[in-house]
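Sample A.
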Amino acid sequence: RLGEFLKKEVNLELSTLPDFEERVIDFSEVEQLMNSINTIPAPCAPVISPQAPNAATGTSLRVCWGLFSDDTVEYYQLCYKPVSNERHSDEQAEHTLKVKETYCTITNLLPNTQYEFWASALNASGISPPSERAVYVTAPSPPIIKTKKILSCENAALVCWESGNINPVDSYMVEL
């Protein structure tokens, strides 16, 4: 029987043409799902470190911060402004810096002045909440010695100076 079957000629042509519909498949939901799987979450808020000893000069401050998580961060946004009791002054303006590292040295600051700092972390998914705010203080300007008022005798000397600082200075160290 197999031999007889194989000897028969079989016509493989279809008698009617198939009628295919032209369908457009919407992959938008699948694409959204795939994109949500590959995205990274927005980072957590950074933590500003307190001012370190010797991290200030009269015109600059070195500010450091960190993250307590393994978040992916492209860069940080460091914001600062001078601390003042006055409202709406030009010196109250906030300044923002884009920083790649977890530290930054800010220059061109006023001597013996308090500045408030806070940071946020950014990546492709968004921006973190801001960190807590930390207050840093620049070093006072050196005093200006009044050379015309210097008096001395065998066992003593009188030296006068002016502070040169807007804000009060806690103490001075005189070296002989």
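Sample B, a different protein:
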Amino acid sequence: GSSFIAGVFLQAMNKKMSIYDAMMRGLLTPGTALVLLEAQAASGFLTDPMRNEKLSAKEALATGLVGRDFYEKLLSAEGAVTGYTEPYTGHRISLFQAMKKGFIVKEHAIRLLEAQIATGGIIDPINSHRIPVEVAYQRDYFDQEMCQFLSNPKNQTRSCFDPNTHENLTYTQLLRRCVPDPDTGLLML
């Protein structure tokens, strides 16, 4: 999966910038910036669109790609790929299991799963590859109710604000409005 929103492109200035930088300059709302960065982290890594580098949340904080204000949330989103540590047993558990046990808020878990679906499929936490929603259900990564919910496009969360049109959109809708960076091929808002 590489079809995620990597950064922001300002056509009038022919300039690209990171999502966090765009937020700091007032081009994106903090809520939209967080959703876009969480979608990157939930897909395996954060991307520096200027250097075309893939970074962990810890590396992104160290290089200034993101600020401390988003760090804990991005670490949590990164767990959608790496799994979560169950605090009582120390075992690795999936995003859905973490949600069921109350370690992750349901709305947040759904947003992370939606980002994975939009960028290529649910990430199998055991084998680290993308799988369709139905296969994830068959492997017991979530229950039938969650499978049906995620399979219905009408249920997608409208958590992204399009700064160009001032509409609230789903991540998938906003993704479709992006343009590829001619230098890197990364999708830019």
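Observation for Sample B: The chain is about 40% helix and 15% strand.
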